[in-house]
Amino acid sequence: METQVATFEVKAGLAQMLKGGVIMDVVTAEQAKIAENAGACAVMALERVPADIRAHGGVARMSDPGLIEDIMAAVSIPVMAKVRIGHFVEAQILEYLGVDYVDESEVLTPADEAHHINKHDFKIPFVCGCRNLGEALRRVGEGAAMIRTKGEAGTGDVVEAVRHARTVLGEIRRLQTMPEEELMAYAKDIQAPYDLVKQTKELGRLPVVNFAAGGLATPADAALMMQLGVDGVFVGSGIFKSGDPAKRAEAIVKATTHYNNPEILAEVSRNLGEPMVGRQVTDIPEAELIAQRGW
Amino acid sequence: MHIGVLALQGDFAEHLAAVARLGAATREVRLPADLNGLDGLIIPGGESTTIGKLAVDFGLIEPLQAFGREKAIWGTCAGAIFLSKDARRQQPLLGLMDITVERNAFGRQVQSFAASLHIPALATVDPGNAPMRVVFIRAPLIEEVSGNAEVLCTLEDGRIVAAQQGCLLATSFHPELSGDDRLHQYFLKLAGGA
Q1: What are the CB-based long-range contacts (under 8 Å, 24+) for B88-96?
Q2: Could you report the per-residue pLDDT of B65-83, keeping only the tens digit for each?
Q3: Cα-Cα-Cα-Cα dihedral of B82, B87, B93, B99, to 10°?
Q4: Mean of the pLDDT values across residues B157-166?
Q5: If residue A23 lies in a helix (H) or strand (E), which one and from where to where?
């Protein structure tokens, strides 16, 4: 029997298993256990959640391998970890450690201001952020097996997550009504590979799984993104920067499953304790916005 | 024929699409009442801990067990784990099938793979019965089959990747990702009582 590892189908396949689920940022093995017990479908292992990266300043890099290994040992669900945009050596290290997914993330300080990692070179799958269809398809062209809309990480303000999801999904809707002869000009216009533009039109969706991220803090935020049409959600600072992380994590998992059921959404939103404090995106100076990193 | 797909978490949309391609009516199942009137249920791939926890929290364990005693259920990957009576660790299980599974038996994502399998039972829906190309994603193995459960398919080295017990079906791989609908056809026959 012939078997093939690391095909695109196998890489994108894991993302398909994550759908309808919540991927949670965790900074310790204890938090990873709390996330798993709350029903997270995967965890993102990192040293500081985005809200702390914002507050701390300085250069944000890949986490300590020891921390990532502790988290991998603590849970049975998939473990993801972040590398800086363009930092293919950090990605080589994560591949060696055997993490299940690499997030080439704008939340860390970019290592390359022109190029992302050639993700086809790796056996492990990658997820990348996007703000619009062109950016999403450039990342898929480089080999990303999963996409997440960026939002504005570490803010607790969902407005950018909504903007980016509406942009991507709206562009796909317009693409579907576009006549064939306009696709090349459109691909040129949004700076995306022509074949992927064509494929997206045929599928009526991105060729890979698409989660929402960046600023989600409540069960209602998660359900909002699901109703807009994403496949699942990432929650970063929103859980472990809140008053009762275990309870909030569980509530967000339930809201992501029952995103169309207001009765359950009301029930799980009750008595959750303090949400993360949050910071309105419009109050943040443009130079400090994370979502604009990525090319 | 009405086929439900448990839609708590995972790749339920892919199963719904396969069942719809075969002409059966489909329904997403999230609460016990959604099971009413179904002829069969598919439990998709996903994270078995997530699916198990949500099934407990929304009162689905007993209704699913009652459903499985009368009707057809097919679990793929996480769904196979959920159907088993033993997964070698503490997590909610339906315990409907006499199989013992080992989670993530092949390792982490880097060890996930695609393979072509020969599944003898598929001859009932496809006389030619060409090998089926399927993917294994952080897949479980069926370590042991006992009681009334039977082996449906093994890898070349003999390790069990599919089992059947009456009209209950467990596969450690994902036919729903391959676009080859023959196992879905086989399941629809089970659900229809054929």
Answers
A1: B89/A76, B91/B48, B91/B49, B91/B52, B92/B52, B92/B53, B92/B55, B92/B56, B92/B61, B93/B52, B94/B61, B94/B64, B94/B65, B94/B68, B95/B65, B96/B65, B96/B68, B96/B69, B96/B165, B96/B168
A2: 999 999 999 999 999 999 9
A3: 70
A4: 97
A5: strand A22-26
Q: pLDDT-derived band of residue A2, with 50, 70 and 90 as boundaries?
A: confident
Asked if the model's pLDDT at residue A172 lies above 90, the reply is yes
pLDDT tens-digit series, residues A173-184: 999 999 999 999
Q: What is the pLDDT of residue B187?
A: 98
Order of strands, sheet of B113-117, starting from the edge strand that comes earlier in the sequence: A3-5, B113-117, B132-136
A65: its two tokens: 């391998």
Q: What band does B46 get if pLDDT is binned at 50, 70 and 90?
A: very high
Residue A254: which of B129, B57, B113, B103 has the closest Cα? Answer: B57
Phi, psi of A253 (to 5 degrees): -60, -45
Mean local confidence (pLDDT), B98-118 = 96
B2-193: CATH topology is: Rossmann fold (3.40.50)
Mean pLDDT of the A207-218 span: 98
Distance of CA B19 to the CA centre of its chain: 13
Phi, psi angles (nearest 5°) of residue A103:
-100, 110
**CB nearest to A36's CB, from B10, B49, B108:** B49
User: Does this model's pTM top 0.90?
Assistant: yes
- Say yes or no to pLDDT of B194 above 70: no
Note the pLDDT of residue B148.
95
Please give, rounded to a whole number of angstroms, the shortest distance from the CA of A43 to a CA of chain B: 12
8 Å CB contact between B107 and B74: no
Q: How far apart are CA B103 and CA B91, in angstroms?
A: 11
> Could you tell me which residues are beta bridge partners of residue B102?
B141
**How much is the average pLDDT of B122-130?**
96
Does A60 touch chain B if contact means CB atoms closer than 8 Å?
Answer: no
User: B135 and A100 in contact by Cβ < 8 A?
Assistant: no
CA distance A27 to A143: 27
Residue A89 CA, chain-centre distance (Å), reads 21
Are residues A253 and B50, on separate chains, in Cβ contact within 8 Å? Answer: yes
Residue whose entry in the numeric block shows the structure tokens 């995103």? A259
Q: Where are the domains of chain B?
A: 2-193
> Residue B190's closest CA among B165, B157, B173, B158?
B165
Choosing from B77, B102, B167, B184, the catalytic residue is B77
d(CA B81, CA B49): 10
Is there a contact between A215 and A152 (Cβ–Cβ < 8 Å)? yes
